[in-house]
Amino acid sequence: MIAFTNNSDSEEEPCNERTSLMSAESPPVPSYQDGLQASEAGEAQAHRKRRTGSSRSPNNAANGSTSSSSVPVRESAVENEEEELTLKYGAKHVIMLFVPVTLCMIVVVATIKSVRFYTEKNGQLIYTPFSEDTPSVGQRLLNSVLNTIVMISVIVVMTVFLVLLYKYRCYKFIHGWLILSSLMLLFLFTYIYLGEVLKTYNVAMDYPTLILIIWNFGAVGMICIHWKGPLQLQQAYLIMISALMALVFIKYLPEWSAWVILGAISIYDLLAVLCPKGPLRMLVETAQERNEPIFPALIYSSAMMWTVGMAKPDTATSQQTWDTAEDGRVIHRSPSHSNSEILETRSPGAIHPVTSLEELEEEERGVKLGLGDFIFYSVLVGKAAATASGDWNTTLACFVAILIGLCLTLLLLAVFKKALPALPISITFGLVFYFSTDNLVRPFMDTLASHQLYI
Amino acid sequence: PALGLFLFTIARDPLRIIILIAGAFFWLVSLLLSSLIWFIAVKASDPNNEPLQKRLLIFGVMFSVLLQEAFRFLYYKLLRKAIEGLVALSEDGCSPISIQQMAYVAGVGFGLMSGAFSMINLLADALGPGTVGIYGDSQLYFLTSAFMTMVLIFLHTFWGILFFHSCENRSWQEIVAVVVMHLAVSASSFCNPVYVGSLVPSYVLMAVAATWAYLLSGGSAQNVRRFLLCKS
Known about the structure:
heterodimer, A: mainly alpha, B: mainly alpha, 0% strand, globular, notch signaling pathway (chain B), transmembrane helix (chain B), membrane (chain B)
């Protein structure tokens, strides 16, 4: 989801970013023989959270503290000017989002191309119970549709659950859940990933070294994401986590189900964010009523600098890794807001905005994109790399398509100035280009290349 | 070289990157449509008829060239509108990026995409065992492909500049010249694997296009001389 925050202090500022939060269940690890599968199932379950950027932070800034030194005061009277400035900064922000999305995709594609493990079919997640090994096409299609229905309903249930939790202020529960999930993600998945990469390149590594590396990686990651840390390090960790999650999806979702799920998720994203009764929208409104920023977790922030003195026991970012599964919103923030938004934890509520703002330094305007968006973009490109017979052409085409979709979504964000779903346009473009490139362009290019003709 | 162009001139400015990606996108769409046409034609015809297939291929190539130029035109229109928007937004009333820069970037976008599509599978295969042309094909396959791709990328860049300039000044003969050049280059590639027939004319045309574009962009012989002699 993409949310746009104005750097305005006025309360009647109509353009607030909205965030929608998807409920995340804590992953009960089911008892399967394949422990890996089980843990990944649990992982995926917890991963089902969604998150939207909070829109209220500008108002928080206004309410919370007058000493918001970092907030460049912009009167609502000059709304037009703001609008222009926003659009003007638009290109820069687009690039700030291009780079991480590109990086994530590159990591996923590189891994898919080189490490065999992620393209082998070793079973399916619990969320996609129907197998696709059926003999007939119709049966396979039916199974994939059923798989999609199961998965989407799981997502919906979790979103509603999270919204309810938020409504009834069970913040501790949510935080604990998020911490648990990010723990598992950081340690377990990294271990598996590292193991597979080492296997591929035939590099031997003894256990103590492995433990040391993974422990360091995981610990720093937890600190960076949930608490404070250098912005770039946090961004790097978020990218890596998204890539790991995307790899899990690519491995464990059967072929046709993956494509149908991608399509269904973008539709769901559209509905959940824009419909008046959608869970995400309700979340946003609840947060607005309470004048709190919605869960800042599960959001990738592109430009934020804050002082080291900021004390933010921030589990929100752990939520980041889980939430943004389907609902990626880009939140456009003015400096102060982005700070309070990203760093603010849910738990103590009102206190945080004040403290955060007071300690804030001037930040650049940043844009926020939900991590779920990263994940699903990477899933699309990774699947294209893994399964397309046209290899790199298809991957490249999907990549360009997704970037263009992101551009358009950001443009719409600048126009509409409220939280927008980031998935639909990009995924639609990506899917269209994938199928058309694979089936139409590939034979053409192959024939051209074999005769060495150039167009 | 194209990558160098990209790094030095485009990567600094975010707006240019966006225009680049959009240009690549437009090229991609044109390729999609042209391959759709070719695909339909192939399906509708007899797959065993060898000369017919070859002719269909040629037809497909020509059609694709025409479509590419059409999309370049569409992209030009879009950029015109975008420039008006940017001018309205900027503080001092003039656009942060001129139409010539846009032309250049658009050209590079087109070129990069076409080059990527031509080369990338080749490059991926090049990592495999070193068996080039053991079935009697030319041994220089990779080399010539590389050179041809490079010349195509540059050509797209120059064509972009020429095309936009001619659209600005409404001089139709330039547009026609660009289209004809493109067709000529593609046609010359039909002479492959007699590489002399394709590479040499392409490079000649590229030199022509380069000087033309340079002159259009306001350069002159004196500028070149001053640059080369490192005068201030």
